[in-house]
């Protein structure tokens, strides 16, 4: 491995001395990468463009805006707010690459009006997220997170950890896109019954039918599921779509799993439901505010699993994501169309009465 590749491998990962790198070239486009990108994608970019990579640049918005004055492309994750103000101060911007699938931090309407392409890594992390969901289901059912600490404290309380099987239990999947479908694939293999709600699917394809998936309205799904997994984008219509009324429909022994976006769930209502044991528990990989505040009330609960938005953060998924976005950004800068355009992909509404 040459010296340059070693540098990229070191700098592109969080926790490994990440810092800014530049590959200044006057005769080529300028690409700014403001959040973490894996080495494979950086390799693609730096062979084509003058690249500024600083995974903490999003924390310094004024500095980022100065760099964007000459940038033809901006590559982000979910922390950089790509709004009209940013686009106004990036007059040469032709394309925004999103290292992931959530688009709530990018003003797609504004980008479309300014003829700025937006590309995303659709499907690149679906396997990783689906596996994380299955892991969360098993952890909630069998209390894996409590077993090791208990034994390390000198305990051997087998009766306290009887848990429950997931075989034959009902999993409700809200949103039957790339990730939701892969969750169904894996849950079927474990013998779970499957309900799905997605108003944009009028007829299941043969694969989902073979998995035993049954379409349902939202209220029925919530009322009959032992586990509910959410896989919808965060839009104005899905914000707080799962609120006090919806949580009240869940059986007392049900678990809620969210790996989509924190804002889809009303956290005040969820905290109350968990504290009062109206539902059995939850697994939250995403939060309304990331990271959560120091006084986060969920920290006091013993029936919630929390993780720092890492469901899709595997080496395989992030390598796929970085290459996919890098290649699409370059494709646009060379005058082509993105293979994975984000504009026009999001539905205006996904859940009924979601705006209430």
CATH class of the largest domain: Alpha Beta
Helix content: 25-40%
Number of helices: 13
| Strands in their spatial order, largest beta sheet | 9-8-7-10-11-12-13
Low-pLDDT sequence parts: 1-18, 347-356
The CATH architecture of the largest domain is: 3-Layer(aba) Sandwich
CATH homologous superfamily annotation of the largest domain: NAD(P)-binding Rossmann-like Domain
N-to-C CA distance: 55 Å
Supply the helix-strand structural class. Answer: alpha/beta
The biggest beta sheet is recorded as: 7 strands, parallel
Could you spell the SSE succession in H and E letters? HEEHEHEHEHEHHEHEHEHEHEHEEH
Which key features would you list for this structure?
356 residues; alpha/beta; Rossmann fold; 2 domains; six-stranded mixed β-sheet; 13 strands; 34% helix; globular; disordered N terminus
Structure, explained:
It is a single chain. 34% of the residues lie in helices and 14% in strands. The chain is an alpha/beta fold and 356 residues long. It folds into two domains: 3-124 and 315-333, Rossmann fold, CATH 3.40.50; 126-306, NAD(P)-binding Rossmann-like Domain (Rossmann fold, 3-Layer(aba) Sandwich), CATH 3.40.50.720. It has a seven-stranded parallel sheet with strand order 9-8-7-10-11-12-13, with helices on both faces. α1 packs across α2, α2 runs parallel beside α13 (315-333) and α6 (126-142) crosses α8 (178-189). It is globular and about 70 Å long.
């Amino acid at each position: 491995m040459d010296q340059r590749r070693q540098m990229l491998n070191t700098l592109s990962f969080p926790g490994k001395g990440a810092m800014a790198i530049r590959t200044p070239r006057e005769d080529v486009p300028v690409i700014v990468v403001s959040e973490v990108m894996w080495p494979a994608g950086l390799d693609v970019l730096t062979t084509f463009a003058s690249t500024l990579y600083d995974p903490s640049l999003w924390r310094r918005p004024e500095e980022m805006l100065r760099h964007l004055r000459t940038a033809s492309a901006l590559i982000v994750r979910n922390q950089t707010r790509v709004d009209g103000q940013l686009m106004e101060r990036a007059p040469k911007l032709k394309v925004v690459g999103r290292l992931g699938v959530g688009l709530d931090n990018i003003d797609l309407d504004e980008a479309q009006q300014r003829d700025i392409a937006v590309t995303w890594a659709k499907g690149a992390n679906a396997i990783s997220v689906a596996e994380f969901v299955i892991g969360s289901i098993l952890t909630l059912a069998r209390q894996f997170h409590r077993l090791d600490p208990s034994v390390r404290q000198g305990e051997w309380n087998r009766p306290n950890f009887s848990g429950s099987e997931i075989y034959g239990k009902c999993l409700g999947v809200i949103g039957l896109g790339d990730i939701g479908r892969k969750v169904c694939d894996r849950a079927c293999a474990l013998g779970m019954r499957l309900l799905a709600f997605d108003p944009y699917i009028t007829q299941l394809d043969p694969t989902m039918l073979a998995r035993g998936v049954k379409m349902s309205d939202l209220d029925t799904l919530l009322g009959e599921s032992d586990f509910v997994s959410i896989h919808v984008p965060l839009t104005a219509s899905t914000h707080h779509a799962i609120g006090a009324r919806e949580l009240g429909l869940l059986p007392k022994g049900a678990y809620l799993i969210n790996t989509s976006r924190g804002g889809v769930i009303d956290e005040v209502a969820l905290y109350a439901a968990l504290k009062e044991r109206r539902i059995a528990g939850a697994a939250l990989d995403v939060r309304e505010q990331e990271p959560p505040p120091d006084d986060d009330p969920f920290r006091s609960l013993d029936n919630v699993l929390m993780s720092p938005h890492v469901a899709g953060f595997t080496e395989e998924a992030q390598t796929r994501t970085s290459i996919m976005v890098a290649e699409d950004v370059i494709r646009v800068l060379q005058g082509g169309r993105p293979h994975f355009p984000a504009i026009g992909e999001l539905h205006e509404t996904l859940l009924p009465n979601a705006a209430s």
